[in-house]
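Re: weekly structure request thread

Next one in the queue (203 aa):
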Amino acid sequence: MENTEPKVDAYIAKSPAYAQPIITHLRKLIHQVTPQVTEVMKWGHPHFDYKGPFMGLAAFKEHLGLNFWKSTLMDDPAGLFAAAEKGSAGSIGKIRSMADLPADDVLITYMLNAIDLNEKGIKLPPPKKTEEPKELEMPTDLIEAFKSNTGTLQHFEKFSPSAKKEYISWLDEAKSEATRQKRLDTMMEWVAEGKTRHWKYKK
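Done, posted below.
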């Protein structure tokens, strides 16, 4: 094998006895599929790069993890990813012995798929940003109105965030203080009855 990394040799030597033949076999298979592979150590475990990372191995006390970096873009004809535990994206499950490994031809198919994605420069989509919901700010006059109407406040707190926002936006859109006060009075009346801002239009 060419392009081997001595640190990977050391990693194999220090791995649990069950994991050593598994890692050695997978390593040879990867080099067989793509002799141009580069071995690197990332986060303390062996990874294999070809125009970018495509596979990683991690030997734990009782099982070995085998991960494909771009599993979400790969085909899964043998159902390896589907069979893995929930939350272990890219993993083909816990491998405890050579018998747990998929057949070589299956592994080669997956390796070629992963390498092909890198060859074509196909990248993983950026992770979706999950924005935390902003806390709804109540205007001062509404807070004061609720202080003397705690029962109404209890009704208001049961509304959904969107229903609360509709009322507050309605107040803030008032063009004059007189209009705002009138809307506030109406709001307090409706909320006390458990009605949302657009209750008239709901069947």
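The mean pLDDT is 87. The beta strands are 38-42, 45-49, 53-59, 64-68, 91-95.
Next request, please.
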